[in-house]
Amino acid sequence: MNTASIGRYLFQFNGNGYRGTRALPQYVRHGHNGSRHTSRRRQHPACSTKPDGPGAIAFNHLPTDTPIMTNAILHRAASRGHADHGWLKSHHTFSFGSYHDPSRMHFGALRVLNDDTVAPGMGFGTHPHENMEIISIPLEGELEHRDDMGNVAVIRHGDVQVMSAGTGIRHSEFNRDQKAVVKFLQIWLFPNKRNVEPRYDQVTLEMGGSRNRLQQILSPYPDEEGVWIHQDAWFHLGTLDAGFGTTYQRKRSANGVYAFVVKGGFTINDIALQERDGLGLVGTDLLNIAADTVGAELLLMDVPMQLT
Q: Taking the domain 63-304, which CATH number applies?
């Protein structure tokens, strides 16, 4: 039986969809002297990501009647799922863990978009992933990663981390600061190749490279700017001055673009967005983007709307 890890669950594919079979992994507290204290979280009910039909991945996200446009879906920040585990506070744009909304399962190949805050000295214990492209974008603090391939690394604001889970990888991640929280975006994409050799990579972005421009941070190609993954997807980050405008051209006609406001406010194709709002556009080649506040930060995720 094929498996894929989504969120805090290990999912099994039975031909009708993925169903979760594993609970939230143990968390780990790291003490000043390097000691580790573990505790188990309670098990949450499973959820599934049954597609609408052969090849259908996310068109259930396209409403039949919307005051904006028929090829758009708007996710306001306050409408996201929320989980408070004490050591971990997380907002879920799509169904994840105990948060389950059948209308918010994924947007094309984009399966998970979590906005996580981890308490000082706390973190995720060692847990497995399979057949998923996992991207972490730190917003604040320092997140330490360890995996069974021997990688030990720390990511900070300005870094982008990627794991191609492939045939299977086990890793842990924790906040190495004993006084300050760590905040990061955790993003999961279905791959276009299954059972690849697991890999880990991270890059440090060019300082100021996203100032008043959309800086590419991810693509399908190893020789392009940013990290690369096993999927026809492109991510861009931009930090724009108030009143600054730019455009974004969709990379592939089969892709949709999901815009997530990291900070401040934007107007995209005449739709006003505030901090942590998300907007998915399908069938739209050109995005007209304007920053409405000082230092507004935007993440664009250009992803396939169907899996091959």
A: 2.60.120.10
